[in-house]
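> example.struct
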């Protein structure tokens, strides 16, 4: 009698229930989602389904603005790794990242202005900034996007280097603009269907609503403190940001003081827009939130989503010559001082910018037009990370 060896049947993981696979996807960070999608077609399909799409809580990544390379150089603050992401467009010398907002990069070239989701390669053209329509230095210096509930862009606003405010809806062919003689804006953000703009001194914020393409001012707030002569010094540089933090709009001023050292002494001054009193009120605490600040953008997150980052702190990139940086430092809002360096990169990055690691996905809400530009074929272009090890030292 022959002895028949029992052959053990290995499970066919490709035939797992789609519902179970979608639950797995919802708990994976971006790099692990990419690895998950590369296992087989059924896993890829599960990861690109509408049910699986939502933001995985993750600290912002750093993306280099280097325009000479065919790839984006990125650093994940969660898994402490560096990656390369191939650019879905020809790397022209004049194509630069000029902003980032809620997972979307804003890129500017000689003839084109567009927004790009770094992790899916989906991109949307915006009107070219020369269509702002006034005699101005049109190149954008600050951006914000209005988002649907599922974080897809529905409208854009920008401030030009000449201090003009421009805005448009996704799909428009020209920017609409607002300019008042003698007033120069520094930054802009959306919140609760209103547009907020702050002046270059960080002392005045205006609120607008737009109806049928026309901006209507609905309020303004000012700082009770005099501006002083802080910006008159040649050794002091100040940048002004607007950010929504816990439902409130904050004015964040970054002050780089070069008076006593080659490397600047950095501090942050934060005020809250209090519309009921029409005043800017100094903020003593961010509570459970964290701010991430670069030269070109600012992001705010709940500290529970940012492993390794402390609540009530500002994390900012430090610049040396020609906007080259290799450090991220921590500023304590409670103490008003820089506490430590939390990231030292093994290689320098050119003017890195913070970007939230998230995918766009199809949405059927009233505000969103994503159905016009997200297709199943584009959703499956998610395998965009080339995993490369780089020397990164976390302190």
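> example.seq
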């Amino acid at each position: 009698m022959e002895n028949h060896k029992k052959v053990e049947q290995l499970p066919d993981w490709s035939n797992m229930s789609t519902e179970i696979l979608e639950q797995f996807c919802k708990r994976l960070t971006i790099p692990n989602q990419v690895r998950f999608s590369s296992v087989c077609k059924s896993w890829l399909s599960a990861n690109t389904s509408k049910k699986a799409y939502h933001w995985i809580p993750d600290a912002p990544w750093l993306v280099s603005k280097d325009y000479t390379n065919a790839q984006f150089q990125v650093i994940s603050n969660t898994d402490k790794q560096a990656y390369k992401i191939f650019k879905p467009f020809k790397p022209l010398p004049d194509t630069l990242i000029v902003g980032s907002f809620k997972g979307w990069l804003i890129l500017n070239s000689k003839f084109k202005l567009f927004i790009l989701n770094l992790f899916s390669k989906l991109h949307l053209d915006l009107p070219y900034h020369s269509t702002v329509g006034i005699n101005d230095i049109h190149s954008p210096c600050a951006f914000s996007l209005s988002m649907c509930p599922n974080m897809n862009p529905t409208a854009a606003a920008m401030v030009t280097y000449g201090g003009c405010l421009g805005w448009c809806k996704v799909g428009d062919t020209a920017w609409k603009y607002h300019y008042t003689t003698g007033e120069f804006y520094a930054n802009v953000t959306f919140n609760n269907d209103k547009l907020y703009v702050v002046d270059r001194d960080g002392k005045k914020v205006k609120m607008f609503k737009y109806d049928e393409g026309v901006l209507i001012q609905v309020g303004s707030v000012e700082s009770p403190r005099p501006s002083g002569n802080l910006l008159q010094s040649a050794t002091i540089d100040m940048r002004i940001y607007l950010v929504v933090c816990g439902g409130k709009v904050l004015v964040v001023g970054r002050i780089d003081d070069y008076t006593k050292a080659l490397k600047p002494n950095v501090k942050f001054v934060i005020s809250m827009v209090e519309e009921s009193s029409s005043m800017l009120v100094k903020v003593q605490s961010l509570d459970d939130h964290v701010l991430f600040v670069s030269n070109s953008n600012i992001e705010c997150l709940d500290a529970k989503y940012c492993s390794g980052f402390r609540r009530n702190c500002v994390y900012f990139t430090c610049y040396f010559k020609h906007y080259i940086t290799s450090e991220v430092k921590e500023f304590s809002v409670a103490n008003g001082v820089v506490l430590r360096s939390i990231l030292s990169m093994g290689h320098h990055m050119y003017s890195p910018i913070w970007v939230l690691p998230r995918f766009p996905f199809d949405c059927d809400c009233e505000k969103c037009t994503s159905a016009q530009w997200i297709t199943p074929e584009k959703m499956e272009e998610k395998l965009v990370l080339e995993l490369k090890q780089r020397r990164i030292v976390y302190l």
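> remarks
The chain has two domains: 13-52, 53-223+232-373+386-394.
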